[in-house]
């Protein structure tokens, strides 16, 4: 029986990184989103809504939707994560201005 090929270590930050460091707000980078969309044709993945938006605009609705989903993630996470102000989910929510 042939051995399965070992998977390469997945890097999330650095030269080929697709995710932001926690300190810079977590979430995917522009480059990461581009790589994901290339690998998944037809994808509508976008980067975070971080700027000021007009109430009722598409971006404002995306932000509201993300904030609602991520609040559910935060509530279901462990107490350690939930109470840590530097956890990835909290940093991402801060970046999205939730």
Strand content: under 5%
Order of helices and strands: HHHH
The termini sit apart by 52 Å
Low-confidence stretches: none
Structural class: mainly alpha
Radius of gyration: 16 Å
Oligomer: single chain
Tell me about this structure:
The chain is mostly helical and 98 residues long. It has two domains: 12-47, no CATH class; 54-98. It contains four helices and no strands. The longest helix is centred in the last third of the chain and has 19 residues, at 58-76.
Write a brief structural summary.
The protein is built from 4 helices and no strands.
Features:
98 residues, 0% strand, single chain, mainly alpha
Question: Helices and strands in order, then pairings?
Answer:
Blueprint: H1 30-39, H2 58-76, H3 79-83, H4 88-95
């Amino acid at each position: 029986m042939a051995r399965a090929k070992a998977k390469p270590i997945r890097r999330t930050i650095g030269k080929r990184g697709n995710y932001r460091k926690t300190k810079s707000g977590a979430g995917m980078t522009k480059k990461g989103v581009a790589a994901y969309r290339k690998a998944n044709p037809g994808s509508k993945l976008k980067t975070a809504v971080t700027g000021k938006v007009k109430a009722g605009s598409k971006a404002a609705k995306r932000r509201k939707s993300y904030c609602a989903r991520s609040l559910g993630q935060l509530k279901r996470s462990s107490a350690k994560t939930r109470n840590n102000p530097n956890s990835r989910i909290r940093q991402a929510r801060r970046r999205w201005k939730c």
